[in-house]
Amino acid sequence: PHRVRYMLRASETFGALVENQAMLYDAQRIARLGSWSWDFRTGANEWSDETFSVLGYAPGEVAPGMDALIQRVHPSHRDAALGYVRALGAGERAAEASYRLELPDGQIRHVRVHSDLRMSDDGDVIGALGTLQDITESKLSEERIHRLAFYDGLTTLPNRRLFMENVAQALNRARRHNRAASVLSLDLDNFKRINDTMGHSAGDRLLEAVAVRLRDGLRAYDEVAYGE
User: Are 227 and 150 in contact (CB under 8 A)?
Assistant: First the structure.
């Protein structure tokens, strides 16, 4: 009877463990959150299935490792990611970081990496473990909010708020370097008449055309904005 009770308890414990692992897997999949580990003593890396998925790999498609991760990092962020990996491999506690990925099909993703060091009982650094989360939707939402706050919806030019901030920065730079700064204001004569006689859609098309011409005629370091 004692052995039977022991086996039943072990079976219940194993069943609870399997259920918890399934719940953890589902939670990581929903959150687009992968986990990884790196053993400095052996060089071995382990990735969860969601880490493969976030990086655009099928589970087991490549050997888990920092090289496979770096291959997915966009060239504009690659040096920063390499510095992060080197610092981590040297046993330095790395802060949380965000990187841009570029998948083979051209898809762009944004990820956030969090890591922590693993210590031995003697206090030596023996590895690292962490998470990799797909934050693409959050990043796109931030960009949309920023665009709504600082850009005109029709002309896509910076709005009055962003223009005033840019002008303030330009004036500060001019004062600091003892240089002059200038502001040119353009107005469309009889624009109200166009709206009244041809309709607001015609007026909108005119504003869009003017915005395109302004962009084409400006230098890269010039500032242009739209304000009513």
Answer: no
